[in-house]
Design brief:
This protein has 55 residues and is an all-beta fold. It contains no helices and four strands.
Length: 55
């Protein structure tokens, strides 16, 4: 079963679903991240990521 769009994950956690992820908060970016990879930091900081769409 897929995790729903809008699922969140923090830097260092395993990516729960392959797709396009967006940094939550002020400065933002998007990145394609594959399921099982570690969620990356953004601009040198730990952040929360939100799933925007499936890969």
């Amino acid at each position: 079963m897929k995790h729903p769009v809008g699922t969140t994950a923090k830097t260092g956690e395993r990516c729960p679903e392959s797709g396009v992820w967006k940094v939550q908060g002020g400065r933002t970016t998007t990145a394609p991240i594959a399921k099982g990879n570690r969620m990356p930091p953004y601009d040198g900081h730990g952040v929360s990521w939100e799933l925007l769409s499936y890969a």
